Automatic annotation (TrEMBL):
It comes from Paragonimus heterotremus. Keywords: Disulfide bond. This is Thioredoxin. It comes from the Eukaryota. It holds the Pfam family Thioredoxin. InterPro entries: Thioredoxin-like_sf, Thioredoxin_domain. The keyword Disulfide bond applies. Residues 1-106 form the Thioredoxin domain.
């Protein structure tokens, strides 16, 4: 399941709620070809990795959130654990996305 984040307040709540579980958030733009390219990988991971929380933020609908997190590239994936950002991955890198997700969910 992928949570759709609509507000800054909502993402902050989700980060707290995840606790010691890994939360992977994709910041995307619907008009971005790289975002469209990586999304099937992100969606498949969300179905297989049920011990990880997945969320997405449409930057065109949520400018405040992407500005607060300093997003400069689409897509950008931010990994949160224990209420803190632990990693950031920018661009289309399916193998890197899988590798980092496995690494942080096991730590």
């Amino acid at each position: 399941m992928i949570h759709t984040v609509k507000t800054l307040r909502e993402i902050k709540w989700l980060i707290r709620w995840a606790g010691n579980k890994l939360l992977l958030v994709e910041f995307f733009a619907t008009w971005s070809p790289p975002c469209k390219q990586i999304y099937p990988t992100f969606a498949a991971m969300s179905e297989k990795m049920t011990d990880v929380m997945f969320a997405k933020v449409d930057v065109d609908e949520n400018q405040e959130t992407y500005e607060v997190y300093g997003i400069e590239c689409f897509p950008t994936f931010i990994f949160f654990k224990n209420g803190k950002e632990v990693e950031r991955l920018e661009g289309v890198d399916a193998s890197g996305l899988r590798r980092l997700t496995i690494q942080y969910r096991n730590n």
